[in-house]
């Protein structure tokens, strides 16, 4: 039977590449994104359904999960939507702090929670969250991003135990730097003069043209996601 993957943030980068990758493997794809009306490429593909979803809109999460599960069995949920903030914590606004936590952490938790009854009823299902190398190590000026990705790692570890006994797998994929819109979109929060020199050195290390041009393409991550979706292994170690 044809399997189905549900993806958040499928409008670009890893999310979009993974929607195409699974489509090519013969899966049904439910590709969610904030502005599906702007999408032109995925709309051309058979068995790819576009649904609107802003993962910080918790009411919309409920209605989209209800709609997706009414279409048939969902086998894999990919929590992909996310972004980073780069800059000194001292220069961030309360709104920036809340937005990155709402997107990368609360959106993941709430979407996953809404899907659990569907997976429990089916006695199977795979939750995959795109964490990051930044969920395992820490760099300066990424503290908000690390806060969300490290939290995702601990949350996944616990949930893998909790849901594993029901036949549900819970795992993360931890990409290294990948050539997507992530870097360009990473919100550079206002710098504070006290950090200027350190921040300039940091930007050269992470965001110079030479570094950006040498990054892995998102399809490399899609292959790892496909393995995680199909290997039958829970996170437990
Ligand atoms: P992109 O910027 O290309 O993609 C990010 C996606 O997230 C976009 O589709 C964007 O949608 C979506 N998004 C952001 N906020 C929301 C929201 N509130 N609701 C729904 N969708 C939202 O970057 P990547 O493909 O690189 O990022 C995908 C994931 O990979 C993220 O979780 C990121 O943290 C992770 N990652 C990326 C790495 C990298 O180096 N690129 C390395 C490690 C992890 P929209 O088009 O509407 O803005």
From TrEMBL:
It comes from the Bacteria. GO terms for molecular function: oxidoreductase activity. The keyword Cell inner membrane does not apply. Keywords: Oxidoreductase. The keyword Oxidoreductase applies. SUPFAM superfamilies: NAD(P)-binding Rossmann-fold domains (SSF51735). It holds the Pfam family adh_short. Transmembrane segments: none annotated. InterPro entries: NAD(P)-bd_dom_sf, SDR_fam, SDR_oxidoreductase. Belongs to the short-chain dehydrogenases/reductases (SDR) family. This is Short-chain dehydrogenase. It comes from Epilithonimonas hungarica.
